[in-house]
Design goal:
Elements: E1 2-4, E2 10-13, H1 19-28, H2 31-40, H3 44-77, H4 86-105, H5 111-129, H6 143-175, H7 182-221, H8 226-257
Antiparallel strand pairs: 1-2
Helix pairs in contact: 1-3, 2-3, 3-5, 4-5, 5-8, 6-7, 6-8, 7-8
Length: 261
């Protein structure tokens, strides 16, 4: 579709992969295009391309969120002690796998964090796996999406750190155990915590972008046979990156709520 702003100025052509993308375009009303042009300084064509990718990624994220909500509703409605169904078996398997890992990493009291880490694992995994569908770019190949996953995780573990240790206790946590070098440790810890946001987002983005690119290149060169191998590799990378993101989240949580002895 052609995108335009006030005054009839045409911004460019924006291809739409899904009907929901069209709804997002109507909802945003060219706000994203204006932002890319005025704040970032992109040309009309560049802004249109960026906005198209962002809106398509948002549409896929909404689809993934809808699938997960439907899955959880089905699990809740079909819970049975005597005759558990296939969906319940899958849910229990995921719950036990994530729970066991959380118990090993976080330790006592891991149960209160299990819902978040399970949701983040499933959401990242499904977003990664959308790249297996021909013609669809996984949302996690965009930096803005992976950053949008890393920032809530950053606030989540810091919130629980403050909740567990109190404001003063959590600030002391940044200063380290040796008081006379706390003036040096404190700024280093602050920088390292902020760098965790980039670590989470860049790692996921770089690996998924590279995986998608390799798969696309081999599909273009040899469309039959060989790409199947790279689709399998993409599946493996999707699973590993979802696991790594979840594992790092657990590690950050364990460090935030740990008490000094």
């Amino acid at each position: 579709m052609l995108k335009s702003i006030e005054g009839g100025k045409t911004l460019g052509f924006m291809p739409e992969s899904f009907a929901i993308t069209h709804f997002i375009d109507l909802l945003l009303k060219n706000t994203e295009l204006k932002a890319f042009q005025s704040l970032v300084g992109l040309t009309a064509a560049e802004a249109t391309e960026k906005a198209s990718k962002m809106n398509s990624a948002l549409a896929l994220e909404l689809v993934v969120a809808g699938i997960l909500i439907a899955f959880f509703i089905i699990v809740r409605m079909t819970l049975s002690v005597e005759k558990p169904g296939a969906v319940q078996h899958v849910a229990e398997m995921i719950h036990e796998a994530i729970g066991d890992q959380a118990e090993q990493v976080i330790g006592h009291g891991y149960q209160r964090f299990q819902a978040y880490v399970t949701c983040i694992f499933l959401f990242v995994l499904l977003c990664n796996l959308t790249g297996l569908i021909p013609g669809i770019e996984a949302p996690t190949t965009l930096m803005i999406v992976t950053l949008g996953l890393a920032v809530p995780t950053f606030f989540y573990y810091n919130f629980h750190g403050v909740r567990e240790q109190g404001v003063v206790g959590y600030i002391k946590h940044f200063a380290g155990p040796v008081w006379w070098i706390s003036w040096l440790i404190f700024p280093i810890e602050i920088v390292s915590h902020v760098a965790r946001v980039m670590s989470l987002s860049v790692r996921l983005y770089a690996n998924m972008f590279a995986g998608d690119l390799v798969t696309l290149v081999f599909f273009s060169l040899i469309p039959v046979g060989i790409p199947v191998i790279f689709l399998g590799l993409h599946l493996f990378v999707s699973l590993i990156q979802a696991f790594v993101f979840t594992l790092l989240t657990m590690i950050y949580l364990s460090l935030a709520v740990a008490h000094e002895h």
